[in-house]
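Please, structure for the following, as tokens.
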Amino acid sequence: MTVVTIINSFIHAIMYMYYFLAACGPDIQKAVLPMKPWITKSQMIQFVILILYASQQFVIPNCTVVSNWVVLLFVVNVVINFFMFRNFYKKTYTKLKKT
């Protein structure tokens, strides 16, 4: 599951770079503010990639890196995180249309 670690580390490096820049003062914070929705989107894309990657174990014969129940728990965890991030994205970055 090295791919999982690499992808997660890449996304977190971007995320913490944003936090660092945002902490450098109000001018820089304004400049990097548009990155916030893209970081959230990239995290959701990461979750989809992780689900697909981990699910290989269930569809490829003789592909057993770890126990199936461990992979299943991982996938369930990632799915839950995906929906939490999706709800956060919808509440934070999408505007409701007034009728």
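The radius of gyration is 17 Å. The chain has a mean pLDDT of 90.
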